[in-house]
Structure formats: structure tokens, C-alpha cells
Design a protein that fits this description.
Length: 291
Amino acid sequence: MTETSERITSQREGEPSGTPPVIDSAFARWLADRAGQVLLQVRDEMGYADGQALKTAGDRAAHDLLRAELARWRPADAVLSEEDDHSRIAWQDGEPASVRPERLGSNRVWIVDPLDGTREFSEQGRTDWAVHVALWSSDSANASHLAAGAVAMPAQHRTIATDHAPAYPPMPIDGGPGGSIRIAASRTRPPAFVTALAEEIGAELVPMGSAGVKIAAVINGEADAYVHAGGQYEWDSAAPVAVALATGLHASRIDGSALKYNEADPKLPDLVVCRKDLAPRLLAALQRHLP
Ligand SMILES: Nc1ncnc2c1ncn2[C@@H]1O[C@H](COP(=O)(O)O)[C@@H](OP(=O)(O)O)[C@H]1O
Ligand SMILES: [Mg+2]
């Protein structure tokens, strides 16, 4: 991890407090950092006695901050947030049957997960939780249309973002510790097929919370791949995938197709993020283990 790719999240000296950068990628970092600081405060103030109350308070506080700052500094843009009420849309075959979300007519949509790794946030001592801020833009050149992204990991005192894309992860000399590929997977609900996949390719599973933290582990070279299937939403992956793509990593659905964001139905149930040299082997093995 280089110094430029890993910045302490606190307000820098001499910066006028509350004035965000104009450039979208730096704005994404600023916003994720702000929400991260709020989440640390919530943890400090509430403690861990009531985990459910802590999760609810954290989700709400970070969501409210992101919503307010986006309304203030990017008033023309649309927002898709995990904490919004998606239930008012009646889904039918993956299409909204009644209300068409306003964001589908917008050229710029901020896709945010105020607190990814909610469970880990509520557990004392755990640092594997994150704030995700991504910008989807119809003008963006990449297939996923992700123009900017930031993942703040406040309890780890680091933020990764597309304004200073991290260096391409180092190649382990012998394929990682013990010579095996390291696959980051959910610590509480790893998909069954990932275990079978790991056995076939002689990989080791590295359990941790938060999709953002797992993708950050691949970006940092602490893991070689993140494989997930069985359910997730656009906000779980948009920001870390934006950073992974800016770093030069492979990121796709597990069938190899492009990850698409700002779709009518925000479900995005599976993905794989890995070094480019691993992608052909991993995708071929995935074909044999698709759930
Ligand atoms: N099967 C599933 N269905 C829906 N969401 C899932 C899921 N598996 C993981 N996720 C979401 O992906 C994020 C990372 O999960 P995990 O740590 O288990 O890998 C979590 O986001 P939130 O914490 O924002 O809810 C979690 O809710
Ligand atoms: Mg999430």
C-alpha cells in the first residue's frame, strides 16, 4: 500500500471545515470519510451493549449525512442508497411494476452504502466495516459506468478511492502464503460453492466482513480474489469495484459478464474481483461450480 493510496480519513489541517472538493472522485473520498467519522462517533457514544440498536443508529446516521451532503453539494444528481425505502416499488420479473425510480432518467447517480458490514460494525474490536460512495455516470467510458468511487474503512484508518487509485497489487512470489491462492469470502455466510471452488484450485479461504473490505483486501494484495454469489445489491459493490477497476484489476459477474449499475432492479447477486492474471483460471473454474 502506497502513501498516496492510503490516506488518513480525518480533516486535513488548513482545510476549511465542511467545504468539499469539486472533482467527483475527491468528493467521493471526502464524503465517505465524513460518514466514517460519524460512524466512529456513534460507536463511541453508544457502546456495544445493544448490537441491534447500534446497527440501526449507525445505518441511519451515515445515511442521513450522505443524503444531506449530496443534496447540498450535488443537488442535480440522483441517489441510490441501501437505507432508502425500496419497498414502494413492486418488482415484477426484475422490472418495477409501478413506480419508476427517478434515478433511471438521470445521467449521474450516486450509489451509496452508508454502512457495509453492519454486523461487524456492531461487534467490539472488529474493523471490517466500511462506507461506500460511488458515482455512476452515463458518460463514463467503462462498461460498468462507474466514474468515481471511495471506500472508507474508518476503524482501519484508511480510505481507498479513485482520485489516487492504489497501485496494482503485488504478485505473491509463490502464489501467497503456503503457495495457495487466497480467496476473501464472507465470514458469516460464505456461499457453499466457494468452498468447492477453493478445493478444486487449491485455494485458501480468508473470511472477513463487508464486501468493500474484501475488495480492498484484493486491492491491497492481502487476498488474491473475492468471489461472491447468492445475493447482494448494487450498493454493496459499486464503490469498491470502481476502485478495483481504476487499479487495473478484473471485476465481473461470475459468468464473466460486465457488472452493471443503476439498473431498474438494484439486485446484483454475484461478482468476482481478482488480479488480471488469475481471472482466466478463476472464471474457468467458476464455470464448473456455478451455483
Ligand atoms: N446472500 C446475500 N443476500 C443479500 N445481501 C448479502 C448476501 N450476502 C452478503 N450480502 C451483503 O453483502 C455485504 C457483505 O456481506 P458479508 O460480510 O457477509 O460478505 C453485507 O452488506 P450490509 O452490511 O451493507 O448489509 C451483506 O448484507
Ligand atoms: Mg452492504
